[in-house]
Design a protein that fits this description.
The complex is a heterodimer of chains A (346) and B (433). Chain A has 346 residues and is mostly helical. Chain A has one domain (2-335). Chain A has 15 helices and 2 strands. The longest helix of chain B is centred in the N-terminal third of the chain and has 40 residues, at 3-42. Classes of the chains: A mainly alpha (346), B mainly alpha (433). Chains A and B meet through helix 3, helix 4, helix 5, helix 7 and helix 14 of A and helix 2, helix 3, helix 4 and helix 15 of B.
């Protein structure tokens, strides 16, 4: 059953990174659109993301619940030492969620829309940056596990581990990933001129993503971040990144041909590879603190808890996944290749 | 004030905020689907208009509830890391089920909001039902996790370790049923009277009275029925607390001296120093009877509990008085509504509508007061009898800043949502009939 729990942990992490990421990314794409394109982007986002965006973010809650039920010791470290960035993430999630709903459900459309729009765009950018920074803090080896909390300063324990150049690069990388996912997704949802806009956006964000990835790895290597060093010396991880890079070729061709379906799945696959590469080299030691690596599998709760959670997840998954699939299919987020055939003529 | 106090204030404030949105998110979908059903049956366009307006309300409240709920699921850990480290695995079951129910709700909401003219009519309507049912299920599950803190079961506590964990027993702890029932009914009472009050105000102002009377009727029926059931559920809760958490019961009643044939105090001013209650109305023997079903039963007083295990008595006592007082008033209001079904002339009176306007916020005040009773009444424990709140709090200093930030952000949010609701009604009223 531990494997079922681990599967759902990684599965919800992946889906949050992919779907939640595409959702954040949509706001980033809008932020970086010319004033002329902003309106189009806004309407496209509403049409495409509207029905599913709320569901996309529940993966975060599922992830959180699995962590605290099955990996309490691990969760404990995260919530104590990442308190400050989490507050910022939550602020971002709150602002973003309400801004999205306000701007589409306000009965009167007037100048208050300007507020909603900017709130939505800015929080769409900062939330993934802080999320990335939090993850960066976990792997950068700067967290100090204190025995006696009073012998350290606030900055040492609660600020410096997450607020530094390395974590900032991780944050930017994740934000770029989100924007890349969103723009690639939106290509498939638009026609003609608008589609060209998103194709161009997709190309820009791919370049930004690859560049940031390189800078991140090089910086991490130079700064002797253990996680990055091990990552580079691990053939499987490197292979996965290599594969992900190779996928860029068909992806570019798909984007150029403005292929609705292939580009979407290729982009998703790339993220799977990157995430796999990042986690594989160090699994299960996902938290690297100063002088100690914490295993996810340390301090597991009793067997009965894992057993129960596994069963609950299987039942929950059995109810949710078909429903979610049906929702995404009904509103065109998931496209089966067959419906893509009519694209050939265009 | 210390870090612990600010952490508690923040938890109370964010929970108090979330509860309002969660209640509305749980109950309003039911109004929406009834109006929707009436539209499908009668094809009266007023019902369609009402459904679509309520649907916007549901969307706004659902999202605000969802984001504040996300914040809460983080906060449980961020504010109370020691608590979650030990309690997390034990109460994992209600939370994982709640996650699933919440997910179902979000999926159904996606179908419902965006399904107009796209989905088959019946299926579309049905997704609305799913929103309501999964919302109520979420609420019940979260309350069950809370009730475990009042009635911790499903583990053995040996040398500071929580072992032999049985998640099912923890979920079905002795307090879960009474608490879940009381809260679900409370959500219906509070939301119904709030929504009814908003529409009663429009009738009072004579703005599209035909439409708003329909809305009022759908909403108030739920509240009136639930308000009559609530005292029964309250009685179950009281008897349960008398048995399991006698100190909480004593604090609710500000009952200091252990005695038999104990009177029930209504109102009264508590002096915690002198341990006395003045200016109260006492009903002889009533507390003994309500708690144990026997006028001569002994009720243990606060003086007989260890001094360091007492909750803040006056807060709990006043909150309890407010909850019961409002509950009684809303029951009378429910009665008035049922009377007006027979004597329709009442509906022509201005004061009738004004009375319901006045009631609009009261249900939520009662809900908040009720949570103060159950949460403050459990202090100083976070896990009753096993872990003190002071042992659970985060080691991070500076909680006051975080608390003030949440107050500012959530107040702005609350004001914005209220303003948005006003705009919804404004637009609704501007349509010419």
């Amino acid at each position: 059953m531990l494997y079922v729990v681990l599967f759902f942990l990684l599965f919800s992490l992946l889906l949050y990174v992919l779907l939640g990421g595409a959702d954040f990314g949509a706001g980033i794409v809008e932020l970086f659109s010319s004033p002329r394109d902003k309106r189009t982007t806004r309407d496209t986002i509403y049409r495409v993301m509207g029905p599913v965006w709320e569901a996309n973010h529940i993966w975060l809650i599922i992830l959180l619940v699995i962590l605290w039920v099955a990996f309490p010791a691990y969760f404990n470290v995260i919530v104590i030492y990442l308190h400050v960035p989490f507050v910022l993430v939550l602020l971002g999630i709150t602002m973003r969620g309400v801004a999205f709903i306000f701007r589409h459900y306000d009965a009167i459309v007037d100048e208050s829309q300007v507020w909603y729009n900017w709130m939505f765009r800015i929080s769409s950018l900062i939330t993934p940056v802080f999320l990335g920074m939090s993850f960066g803090a976990l792997i950068s080896g700067k967290i100090i596990l204190a025995e006696d909390f009073s012998s350290y300063s606030f900055a040492d324990l609660y600020m410096l581990p997450w607020f530094n150049v390395f974590t900032f690069l991780v944050g930017l990388f994740y934000a770029a990933l989100c924007a890349f996912l969103a723009s690639t997704l939106l290509i498939g949802e638009t026609e003609g001129e608008v589609r060209k806009i998103f194709s161009r956006k997709s190309a820009y964000f791919t370049i930004a993503l690859v560049l940031l990835g390189f800078i991140l790895i090089i910086y991490g290597y130079v700064q002797e971040v253990l996680f990055i060093q091990d990552f580079i010396h691990n053939p499987v991880s490197l292979g996965a990144v290599g594969l992900s890079a190779l996928l860029l070729i068909p992806l570019w061709r798909a984007i150029k041909r403005q292929n609705r379906i292939a580009s979407r799945y290729l982009a998703g696959l790339q993220v799977v590879f990157v995430l796999f590469a990042a986690l594989y080299a160090h699994f299960p030691y996902i938290i690297i603190t100063e002088g100690k690596e914490l295993s996810l599998l340390e301090g597991l709760p009793p067997h009965s808890v894992i057993q129960n959670l596994g069963v609950m997840l299987l039942i929950g998954g059995g109810v949710i996944l078909p429903g979610l699939f049906h929702l995404m299919k009904s509103f065109g987020m998931i496209k089966i290749f067959k419906t893509g055939e009519d694209e050939v003529g265009q | 004030m210390e870090n612990l106090d600010f952490a508690r204030l923040q938890m109370a404030f964010t929970l108090g905020f979330h509860i309002i949105f969660a209640c509305i998110g749980m109950v309003m979908p039911f109004f929406m689907v009834i109006s929707h059903k009436k539209w499908l049956n009668t094809r009266n366009p007023l019902y369609l208009e009402l459904t679509k307006t309520w649907q916007k309300g549901v969307a706004i409240f659902f999202v605000t509830g969802a984001v504040s709920g996300t914040a809460l699921s983080f906060e449980l850990g961020m504010l109370w890391p020691e608590f979650m480290k030990h309690a997390g695995p034990i109460i994992g079951m209600p939370f994982s089920l709640e996650g699933a129910a919440f997910f179902v709700e979000a999926i159904a909401l996606g179908f419902y909001l965006y399904g107009w003219n796209k989905l088959p009519e019946k299926f579309h309507w049905f997704t609305g039902i799913i929103i309501g049912i999964s919302g109520v299920a979420s609420g019940i599950l979260v309350v069950s996790a809370n009730s475990w803190m009042n009635a911790p079961t499903g583990f053995d506590y040996v040398n500071g370790e929580y072992i032999n964990i049985d998640p099912v027993q923890a979920l079905l702890n002795p307090a879960w049923f009474t608490q879940a029932l009381h809260m679900t009914l409370a959500a219906f009472v509070a939301t119904s009277f709030a929504v009814a009050g908003v529409h009663a105000f429009q009738v009072y102002r004579n703005k599209r009275p035909q439409l708003h009377k329909k809305a009022f009727k759908i909403a108030v029926v739920f509240g009136a029925v639930a308000a009559f059931l609530q005292p029964l559920s309250g009685d179950l809760s009281a008897k349960d607390i008398a048995e399991r958490q006698p100190v909480k019961l004593a604090a609710m009643e500000a009952h200091y001296e252990t005695d038999t044939n104990v009177p029930l105090y209504i109102g009264g001013i508590v002096d915690e120093e002198k341990q006395t209650v003045s200016h109260k109305i006492a009903i002889p023997g009533a507390l003994s009877f309500l708690a144990f079903g026997d006028f001569d039963a002994e009720v243990v007083g606060l003086k007989d509990f260890p001094a360091d295990e007492l909750p803040p008595v006056s807060v709990v006592h006043y909150a309890f008085q407010i909850m019961v007082g409002i509950g009684t008033l809303l029951m009378i209001a429910g009665l008035l509504y049922f009377i007006s079904l027979k004597y329709k002339s009442l509906l022509k009176r201005k004061w009738y509508w004004l009375f319901f306007v006045f009631l609009a916020p009261l249900g939520f005040i009662a809900v908040e007061a009720g949570w103060v009773v159950t949460e403050v009444g459990r202090q100083p424990w976070v896990i009753y009898g096993f872990m003190k709140t002071s042992e659970a709090v985060t080691p991070m200093p500076g909680m006051e800043f975080s608390f003030y930030m949440y107050v500012v952000v959530y107040l702005i949010l609350a004001l914005t949502v209220t303003w948005l609701m006003r705009r919804q009604i404004k637009v609704l009223n501007s349509v010419k009939e």
